[in-house]
What does this fold into?
Amino acid sequence: MAGYLALCREDAKQREHSLRAVFNGLRYIVKSGNQWRMMPHDLPPWPIVYQQTQRWIRAGCFAVMAEDLRSLLREFAGRGRQPTAMILDSRTLQSTPESGARAGFFSRSDHGKTARSCSATKPRLA
It folds into this structure.
């Protein structure tokens, strides 16, 4: 992990907290879903963890880490490092006014009434 996250040397003079402690702070936030300011006091202060996380994101550290992990998992499964095929799903494309209601686009004039018409009807009582 340190090879991916070290943007400067571990023994740099400006470093007050180890990379491991800062990364553990980030892991705590991701796992717990807490706000930055609610980090426990046994981890580095939240502004340090937040600032270093932003540096890692801007440097693309997590994207490279995920790409290398994907490549390793593919190799362990006996496949090539890079995929040879790709699947595109047209339903994930954003619908446009030209595609109309068949693609799930509703104009502002009907306010989505056609989408709710079936569920908004009251059941009949016998």
In short: Residues 2-6+16-76 form one domain. The chain has five helices and no strands.
